[in-house]
């Protein structure tokens, strides 16, 4: 880490507090804002440091924009910088989803609120479907094995309506072995870690279950913030029945109309399940893996981060995660697309995102909310 900097830690924290408050458009837009502001305009971060942070954020599990923010905080100010920047980036959207959670519980049973979320739910399905399409093009390409992994994961998600962590790990190991046949696999300890995590969920305490479940969710957000959606659906709706399908889709919608990372939907879900404590625990548990997966390898990333075997493992996991997202779109679409108007709203959302690049998701969500209100 450099000893002299052209900016203070306070300035960097204030920047990310502002970005977390006003940064709409999803992870791709947010990482673009960081490059424009911190590399090109302010020149606080070098282009090389930014690219290293982006590469680490893409390789490690966790929400892309949040991990890049944490890494950029680490570059010149170490653990303290990473911690304060991460908190500043996530805090605004967390407070917003808390407010929306309170309003949702207060007014959720009223007809006008149901009408608004009728339109929003259909729009969200279209947005996730288009996001999946972009991820497929970007991450899978023409690789036949990645396509096979993607299709198997999508079908498994649709058929079982759950997401299997071992399927993710198996996909990563399969593609790693395919690209770089190792002399010694050396994954026993990794498997044992995830097995132990999966076996920890043995208590009856709701808050403890929230912590363990969302901790596992945060450790498997590969490829995009959307990757957490099928995992959350499998646990929140199917396994624990904390929310019904409509409440879950509404939770994803809330994350999309607030700035900051899409993963902040966990705060809204936690609030609906167990109030303020549930929101805090769900958010902390989800972002802790993201934090550690960024800070711990950061000192060694320049040396080992470009290892092609590591990238191959992540490519396999990412293909499986994208397949799970597509499977989740199918499942949620069956629950949310209930009539011809909902179909038209979803298709219109996809068309707008495809045709008009400058119109971001929050505007589409607000438009869908207005249409739902007028229709119902």
UniProtKB/TrEMBL annotation:
<comment type="similarity">
    <text>Belongs to the chromate ion transporter (CHR) (TC 2.A.51) family.</text>
</comment>
<keyword id="KW-0472">Membrane</keyword>
<feature type="transmembrane region" description="Helical">
    <location>
        <begin position="12"/>
        <end position="33"/>
    </location>
</feature>
<feature type="transmembrane region" description="Helical">
    <location>
        <begin position="80"/>
        <end position="103"/>
    </location>
</feature>
<dbReference type="InterPro" id="IPR003370">
    <property type="entry name" value="Chromate_transpt"/>
</dbReference>
<dbReference type="InterPro" id="IPR014047">
    <property type="entry name" value="Chr_Tranpt_l_chain"/>
</dbReference>
<feature type="transmembrane region" description="Helical">
    <location>
        <begin position="217"/>
        <end position="236"/>
    </location>
</feature>
<feature type="transmembrane region" description="Helical">
    <location>
        <begin position="248"/>
        <end position="273"/>
    </location>
</feature>
<keyword id="KW-0812">Transmembrane</keyword>
<keyword id="KW-1133">Transmembrane helix</keyword>
<feature type="transmembrane region" description="Helical">
    <location>
        <begin position="145"/>
        <end position="178"/>
    </location>
</feature>
<feature type="transmembrane region" description="Helical">
    <location>
        <begin position="312"/>
        <end position="332"/>
    </location>
</feature>
<dbReference type="Pfam" id="PF02417">
    <property type="entry name" value="Chromate_transp"/>
</dbReference>
<feature type="transmembrane region" description="Helical">
    <location>
        <begin position="54"/>
        <end position="74"/>
    </location>
</feature>
<feature type="transmembrane region" description="Helical">
    <location>
        <begin position="115"/>
        <end position="133"/>
    </location>
</feature>
<keyword id="KW-1003">Cell membrane</keyword>
<protein>
    <submittedName>
        <fullName>Chromate transporter</fullName>
    </submittedName>
</protein>
<feature type="transmembrane region" description="Helical">
    <location>
        <begin position="279"/>
        <end position="300"/>
    </location>
</feature>
<feature type="transmembrane region" description="Helical">
    <location>
        <begin position="338"/>
        <end position="356"/>
    </location>
</feature>
């Amino acid at each position: 880490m450099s000893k002299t900097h052209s900016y203070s830690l306070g300035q960097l924290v204030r920047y990310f507090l502002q970005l977390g408050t006003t940064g709409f458009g999803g992870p791709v837009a947010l990482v673009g804002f960081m490059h424009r502001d911190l590399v090109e305009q302010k020149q606080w971060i070098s282009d090389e440091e930014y690219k290293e942070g982006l590469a680490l954020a893409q390789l490690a599990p966790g929400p892309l924009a949040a991990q890049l923010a944490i890494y950029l905080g680490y570059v010149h100010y170490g653990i303290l910088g990473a911690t304060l920047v991460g908190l500043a980036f996530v805090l605004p959207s967390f407070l917003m989803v808390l407010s929306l959670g309170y309003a949702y519980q207060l007014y959720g049973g009223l007809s006008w609120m149901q009408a608004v979320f009728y339109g929003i739910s259909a729009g969200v399905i279209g947005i996730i479907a288009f996001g999946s399409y972009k991820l497929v093009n970007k991450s899978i390409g023409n690789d036949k094995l990645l396509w096979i992994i993607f299709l198997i994961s999508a079908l498994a998600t649709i058929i079982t309506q759950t997401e299997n962590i071992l399927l993710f790990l198996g996909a990563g190991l399969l593609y790693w072995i395919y690209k770089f046949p190792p002399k010694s696999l050396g994954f026993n300890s990794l498997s044992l870690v995830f097995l132990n995590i999966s076996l920890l969920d043995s208590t009856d305490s709701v808050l403890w279950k929230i912590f363990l479940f969302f901790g596992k969710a945060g450790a498997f957000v590969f490829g995009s913030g959307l990757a957490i959606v099928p995992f959350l659906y499998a646990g929140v709706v199917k396994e624990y029945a904390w929310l019904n399908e409509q409440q879950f889709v509404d939770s994803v919608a809330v994350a999309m109309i607030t700035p900051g990372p899409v993963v902040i939907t966990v705060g809204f879900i936690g609030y609906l399940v167990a109030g303020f404590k549930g929101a805090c625990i769900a958010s902390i548990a989800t972002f802790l893996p993201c934090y550690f997966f960024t800070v711990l390898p950061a000192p060694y990333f320049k040396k080992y981060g470009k290892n092609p075997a590591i990238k191959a493992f992540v490519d396999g996991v990412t293909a499986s995660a994208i397949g799970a997202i597509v499977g989740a779109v199918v499942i949620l679409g069956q629950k949310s697309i209930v009539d011809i108007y909902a179909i038209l709203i979803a298709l219109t959302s996809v068309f707008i995102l495809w045709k008009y690049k400058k119109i971001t998701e929050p505007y589409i969500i607000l438009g869908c909310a207005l249409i739902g209100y007028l229709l119902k």
